[in-house]
Each structure stands twice: as C-alpha cells, then as structure tokens.
Amino acid sequence: MRLVKLLSVLSIALSQVQACRTDEDCSLNGICVHTTRHGKQSACKCDTGWFGDDCARLDLAPATRWTGYNHTNATQPDDWKANGNSSWGGTIIQDPEDRGLFHLFASQFEHGCGLSGWRPHSFVIRAESRTGPQGPYVYADRVTDAFHHNPQVIFSPADDKYLLYMIGVDAPEYTECRSFSYKQWPNNISVASADSPQGPWTAPQLVLSSAPPDAPHSTNPSPWPLWSPRNPTHEIALGVEDIAIFSAPRWDGEYTLTHTQTWNTTEYSPTWTEDSFLWRDKRGHWHALAHWMIDLVEHDGQKYPRVGAHMFARQLTGPWHFHLHEAFNSSVAFTDGSTQVFKRRERAKLFFSDDGLLTPLYLVTGVQDMGETGRSYTLVQPVGARWRGFEEGLGL
C-alpha cells in the first residue's frame, strides 16, 4: 500500500512538472497538448531537435572528434605563439550550386596568437567540407583582414545575395600576441555582400558603431531576413548583444533600435548573456540562443558548464521570455564513447533543414579545452535525429 501511495505521489508530481497551459510554457519549441485521460492534463509536445518539460533544451547527438574546423596543430615558421590556426565558432552555408559542398565562415587568429589574442588578431576565413556539414573543414580563403570577428552569413532572398555580418575595424599590423580593449579596437558591426559564398565580397560597410548612441548594444550581430513568400520584403532584423533588436528596410539601409529586453542584462546578474543568435521558426515565432554567463556570476569567474541560454517570443518586439536553465552545456559526448567538459563553449549558431520546417540539424560553437588560454577550435555537433536523413540525402 505504501508503494502504491508513493507511486501515486510521484505520478502527481511528474504531471505537475510537465503541465503546461500555453505554448509559451513549451518555449514556443513545441505545442501544449491538452488531454482528458485520467482527468484534465496537459504536456508539451516538443518539436524535433528540442526536449525537456518545457522544450527548451537542444537534443544534442554525439559529436565526432576532429570534425568541425580544428587546426590547432597547424604551425607556420613566422608564428609568434604555438596556438596553431585556432578558430572560434562560425556559420555553415550549403553551396547553392553544388549541394555536396559546405562552407564554414569562422573567426581565425593570426600568427598563432590564438583566442587570447583575438583583438586585434582575428580575421574571417572561409573553409570547405565535402563530407557534410560536420566536416572536417579545410581552409579555403581569407575573407577579411584583421580585426574582424564573430561572422554570421545569411542569404537574403529579396536581394539574391549572401550577407556577411561581423564586428571589428580595419586595424594596423601589431607585432605581438596580446588582446586590446574594445576602446582601442572597437566592436563596430559591419556587413559585406556577395553573389556566392565563394565571393568576391564587397568591402565591409559600417552598420552600427560601438560609440554612442548605438553603444552598448553594437556588438555580436545576428541577422535574419524578414522575407517570406507572402511578404517578399527587403527588411532585415538584427539581434545584437543582450538580444536587443534592430531593424532596417534593407541590408544596406539605416538600422534603428526597435526593442530592448525587460530582464536585467547588466553584468553579474543571473540573466547576463552575450553572443546572440536570432531566428524565426516555422510558425513565425522568434528565438535566440546566447552565451549564458551564470557560472561566471555564481562560481567566481568560471566559464563552464552552464553556457547556453534560450529566449523566445511570438513577436520580434516581444514580450520575450527567458527560462533560467541551460539550453545546452559545455559537456560534449563523442562518437568514440568519451565525454569531455570544455572550459569554454560559446558563439552558438544553428544550421537548419531547408525543407521549410527549420529543424535544427547542427550546433556550431567555439570550444576551448581545460587548461588552455590560446588554443581553441570550432565544434560542429548534430542535433536530434533528422541530421541522419539529411546526410543520407547527400549520399554520405
């Protein structure tokens, strides 16, 4: 009898945890399904790629070692430090003419300086993979000079162009590995365009300055075209630091601030975030991933393991919601059976299915091993199970 009672209590508790009233309780990553079985109940039915009681956690599959873009073991005779061709995150683009070719736009650091010398030694590179979105990727060409960092590439259907957003400014050559303050090398946001992922790219055009009145939001851009078949507009939404939202009538137009978040995004608060990644889902709802700084706040500067936050809204201008738990962490399972906790895992970006459902297929992040300060690389990790069918369609 006591066992029956205990099971009954656990069942009630579980139903309370899983209960939902609206789709917001499912993070807009699923729908709240109401049933009448055994009384009035409800639970979230998560979209593919997400899981959890509130559908706010990425369903990450094991990653494969030495895929992504990992060239930390590469050296050149004129390197100043032995951090190889370290990189930090990136955007995956499938080639429109050759569907078996994938491009990765990533930040790389000159002269073996690595992540610790990111400002002003970061520049944007393009790498290629013919073994699917996971890679491994091989360096193809240099897209910008230093200092340019945190690239995100999108395709604008209204303009039939690829748009490369990034931070930084043209910086003079510096002769040692060190990182400077943003006051010396600003985090200005600029954009370049090209007809093809291979370029050529136009010169970067300033979008937002890190000086007032645009500051402090003008860093870490994440664009999303507002174009749809029913509304073939040229408008661009631009998420930036703290998930502030800018918009422009077209990619090379004037960007104006349209929304700032109501939660406290000041440094050393529980909602301190950076590195926004913005997208609109199949239902027209809005989402963002961000680097959550909660462990840095609660554990005296530690940058792991709770590193990923998810925010969501029905409308671009809000209200936005922030569930205070991790969307992903810095612990990564690998196909060789091992698990590794990274010291840093940041710059999260997603690669989606191209079938109109925008199912997340791969998560791209910059990672750094424990004990490292300079070496870092770009990790690509599958999401859910749909990526298998995607790769099978490529003949892989």
UniProtKB/TrEMBL annotation:
<keyword id="KW-0732">Signal</keyword>
<feature type="region of interest" description="Disordered">
    <location>
        <begin position="194"/>
        <end position="226"/>
    </location>
</feature>
<dbReference type="InterPro" id="IPR000742">
    <property type="entry name" value="EGF"/>
</dbReference>
<protein>
    <recommendedName>
        <fullName>EGF-like domain-containing protein</fullName>
    </recommendedName>
</protein>
<keyword id="KW-0245">EGF-like domain</keyword>
<dbReference type="Pfam" id="PF07974">
    <property type="entry name" value="EGF_2"/>
</dbReference>
<dbReference type="InterPro" id="IPR013111">
    <property type="entry name" value="EGF_extracell"/>
</dbReference>
<feature type="domain" description="EGF-like">
    <location>
        <begin position="16"/>
        <end position="56"/>
    </location>
</feature>
<keyword id="KW-1015">Disulfide bond</keyword>
<feature type="disulfide bond">
    <location>
        <begin position="46"/>
        <end position="55"/>
    </location>
</feature>
<feature type="signal peptide">
    <location>
        <begin position="1"/>
        <end position="19"/>
    </location>
</feature>
<dbReference type="InterPro" id="IPR023296">
    <property type="entry name" value="Glyco_hydro_beta-prop_sf"/>
</dbReference>
